[in-house]
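Write out the 3D structure for:
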Amino acid sequence: MAKPIRPLSAYLTGLLALSALAGCASHPTAPSKASPVAIAVPAVPATPDGATQTAASSAASPANDPAVQDIGPVQFPDHSFVSPIAPDLFVRLRSGFQLEDTDGAQVDRELNWYANHPDYLERVWGRAEHYMHFIVGQLNARSMPLEIALLPVVESAFEPYAYSRARAAGLWQFIPGTGSNYGLKQDWWYDGRRDVVASTRAALDYLQSLHDEFNGDWLLAIAAYNCGEGNVERAVRRNERLGKPIDFWHLKLPTETRAYVPKLLAMRRIVADPAAYGLEFSQIDDTPYFVQVNTGGQIDLQVVSEISGVGKDDLYELNPAFHRWATDPTGPYSLLVPIEAAEGLEQTLLSLTPEQRMRVASYEVHKQDTIAGIAKQYATTPELLRHLNNLAANDKPVVGSTLMVPSATIQLPEKAMRAAALFDRPGRMSGRRYAHRGLHVVRRGDTLFAIAHRLGTDVHTLARLNNMDVNDPIRAGQRLVVSSRAPAASPAGGRATASAGSGRQITYTVRRGDTLYGIARLLQVTVRELLGWNGMESGSSIRPGQKLVAFVSSRG
């Protein structure tokens, strides 16, 4: 949950430091860690929650709890309805059910599993409470069945960082191609498939399109969302040729899809009457949890955290599409924040200067350097560098002078680091030729951040491998370690598997709603490996705050 906005006095020192740095941009200075931003926070009314952007995916079995682009102005329809009887979102959900309650062995099988795993459901709803009000509001605005709000239970267990072996990502589990087809930008900075607002818009667009394609049959639309419209179309044509019924229950579809629709219908039945199955759910308030604020351009997420009082982990949990230390320089220029932290925040962010928006370090200009080349090294844009250094469009950097450049000083949450590593696969980034050797020879003009960027790794990991701070200077010809071999056994006493020998050791802190399967899926390891590395037996339970050791591949 968000903390109160911090007072202006907490940031005065940082503002003076940043102003001093901006004033001496043309003089060589040693890189330093940036101080917090100081900005007055004018009071402006909070805005209503929500907006929208998904596409086909692979279903997540309930038995296996699985652990962005400028889309233009997003309209937020009025969906702040609160039930006059009870301010419980489950009440509102039930009132908007439209799918037929279907009996059958397939639904009963899934129903029994859910009913026998109440802890699983409680964990899912614990994650869902951040997003459900928004999703239900979007469905209401489109007059779509509210059962669709339960689809992320089947897809991702409401884990926004969920990632499948089919490379499906986010709450709605879009694969890359379908995500692109529905306007979900995916680049080094941002993956719209994990954007809560954008992916919801895309998922509902896709489902509505499938509904129209299959003549208003929602079950066929939902099946097609799982396995693709082509598979469903072929199954329908096959039954038509044979003179058989063409409803979902009579079609020959992939095994996963045959279970996918019954899972949703089973979840519908449980939510409709949990007491009938001996269940009782904690209430999810039918009120907005987050609002969307305009950032006015690229911004360091640590700056937003300090100004808003929202914890860094909480900020990333609401904005999982941004898997670096800052938002995408080319947009979207918006962030989600808890509603209680939003007052005055947007106006404050829009008033920040370029050097206040992005924590800065210094870079000494060398012969042959260009603004475009330096911008590429620091994963930013020439326009931002010109803004930071007050350079005109045709100005060239002067050899020997010092430019302000973005400084990646934020330590990302493990989930965000893993999301970045999944994007930075072999072949996606340049410089991989060095990785297999385990060493990198520093070139003139290199920085730790620039090397980490080229190698597709995290600057903090690179610094840690070389017993350095992220702001320590490096020199041409210096050799840096860029890969490591983890120990053969974990500190918890478990015997590591062979994969630990080539992985990067991380420590994962268990959060509310996590499961071993979900964590294993997030880190792209197996549950058996997690158990072994941590000296645990099959069936062991985990608790929030518990530390788990894992060895993950830096190649994703």
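Strands lie at 290-294, 334-338, 360-364, 402-406, 439-441, 479-481, 504-509, 547-552.
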